[in-house]
Amino acid sequence: MIATFDDTYNFAKKFSHYKDFYIKHNDLIFSKLGLGTFNKEPYKEENYLFHYIEGVKEAVKSGINLIDTASNYRYGQSEKEIGIALQELFEEGITKREELIICSKGGFIQLEYPFPENPYTWIDENIIKSSLATKDDIELDQHCMTPDYLEWSCKKSLENLGVKTIDIYFLHNPEIQVSKHGYKKFLKKIETIFRRFEKMVEMGMIKYYGVAVWNGFIDKSTNEHINLEDLVDIAIKVGGVNHNFKYIQTPFNMGKTSIYTMPTQTVKGEECTLLQAAHRLKIGVISSSSLLQMNLFKKSFKPETGYLLDSKMVLENDIQLALQFVRSTPGLISSLFASKVPVHIKKNLEITKIPATSRAKYDLMYRV
User: From start to end of the chain, where are the E strands?
Assistant: First the structure.
């Protein structure tokens, strides 16, 4: 079972009183905010307590149908908790699988919880001796993107999530390996991965695939830069014009706006922003880090910014304003935020009481 247009549309109709909160892309209806499940400081023991279950359930009950995770988040615990929450939601008749868009990622070595006594032994036994990759394929003792490893990782994610198909499967932070291989060799590796991803679509493991980055599309001056058009060209080569490379994920928030403002991409020889490039190449953009891991709130936003985002003064705090900002960004499908506390999720979704900020007002914020 996978997300479908009819079912995601029916999900959105349950929340018809929400303002500007759903958008169609490809053949799915997305909520403009999605729930992320990344936790900082992975080595803290308290990060492995089962605490995302109620948050996931509250998000779905409150109108969010996009849930994002990754194989390595809390060594698989995030995926497992989503799986428990989904099963409870289905059993309680609150939603069904086809109404939800489930995303995960592969690329980082997920290890396991409880954390293995010796992670290098775990990698040797589970990855190298299983012929999923060689030692040389593993970068910084943590990142691996051979096709065999990624398919194995995806199978683990499916098992953890308790679903038969992942709607969007992202190659996770591939820019980590750009400088190691050089850009041309890196693109060759991407070709082998995309070829495998197309087979995984045929096998029913995933519906669409994409690339999730932190720095990859943003800054041309780094040795991690990736040009989106190159990836699309590869997808066409391995999958034809009807290829299944449909989405990218990248950070965007009030403190990190380059995908909207800086010409970091080139399409047909013309420089443009990432959002412009994605639009021209028909790739959907999902943004991450909407709250910059809460680092946006060290001082209050300017009153002018608050007025442009919420002229009726309905919103109560800067977290809501930050979510209103990403939700209003032209060209974004959905923006992820992480929260494990149900009451916080309900509070954040009070932005649905007001419309998205108009394009004219939105662009004024970059001058404030």
Answer: 22-25, 28-31, 33-36, 66-68, 101-106, 138-139, 143-144, 166-172, 206-212, 245-251, 265-267, 270-272, 284-288, 334-338
Query: 344 vs 29, 199, 337, CA distance in Å?
Result: 24, 40, 11
* Alpha-carbon gap, residue 252 to 257, rounded angstroms: 6
- For the chain, the C-alpha Rg in angstroms (whole number) is 20
Among 216, 281, 205, 208, residue whose Cα is nearest residue 251: 216
CA distance 84 to 55: 12
pTM: 0.95
Mean per-residue pLDDT, 268-291: 96
Q: How confident is the model at residue 45 (pLDDT cuts 50, 70, 90)?
A: low
End-to-end Cα separation, the chain, in angstroms:
47
CB 244 within 8 A of CB 207: yes
Determine if the peptide bond prior to 114 is cis (ω within 30°): yes
Mean pLDDT of 214-219: 89
Q: CA–CA separation, 183 vs 302, rounded Å?
A: 41
Burial (CB count <10 Å: 0-12, 13-18, 19+), residue 331? middle
